[in-house]
Amino acid sequence: MAKLTVHHLQVGQGERIPFLLEELGIPYEVKLYQRSPFLAPPELKEKHPMGASPLLEDATSDPENPLLLAESGAIVEYVINKYGNGRLSLPPTHSSYADYVYWLHFSNGNLQPTIFRKFYARMFGLDEQDQRYQDTDERVKRAVGHLNNCLQSNDYLAGDEFTAADVMTTWCFTTMRRFMPMDLTEYPGITAWLKRVTARPAYQRAMKKCDPDEDLEALISAAGPPRFVPKS
Ligand SMILES: N[C@@H](CCC(=O)N[C@@H](CS)C(=O)NCC(=O)O)C(=O)O
User: Fold this and answer.
1) Are residue 129 and residue 70 in the same domain, yes or no?
2) Does 136 have pLDDT greater than 80?
3) Start and end of every GST C-terminal domain (predicted)?
């Protein structure tokens, strides 16, 4: 049996891994870290050169010297292929394989960097009338609109089946909005998908373990959850 520990910085993308492990029915433990005040506390920074969450510790092969893996996308592929028998992924022979691979990588490779560019434009004081700010805003709308179009005609990102692409993307429209407010009223494909995905028992169980204080209704509402306020 796998001996897995997920290191999760609370209110963050680390929740993806417990969500995946719950879906796959793979046992794990979770070690929680609190933001200090916004970023990782020293204990998490010491664990890995990047000091970011999630981290997966796998003591299955060598309990004395467990493997430590960072990057949520890498962890998702590792778990699915090593312990999940490929479940929640689509094989190359599947007609939606290209869609699966595309959306699996879209959240970390495109959506998040696009949203953070706008976040920094605002943080560094660019006025909303500034063309450079407007360019970042236009690109966010393009990325979110693109995802919404996909979800207007499909139940899940890769088509009819729930896959790891949905696991990777969910937090971008739930917990991530605690840092990057985004109204989803104009994106009914995304809000309907959020309801479907977050109603899954695996998501509910994962969030109870990762962030029991989060208000799940607020996380999926079109208006979005309240801004994150660090504990003093
Ligand atoms: N691309 C990485 C990003 C990891 C990351 O930046 N995680 C955030 C949590 S949402 C973090 O740990 N931030 C704390 C810090 O950078 O100090 C992944 O997908 O795992």
Assistant:
1) no
2) yes
3) 93-216
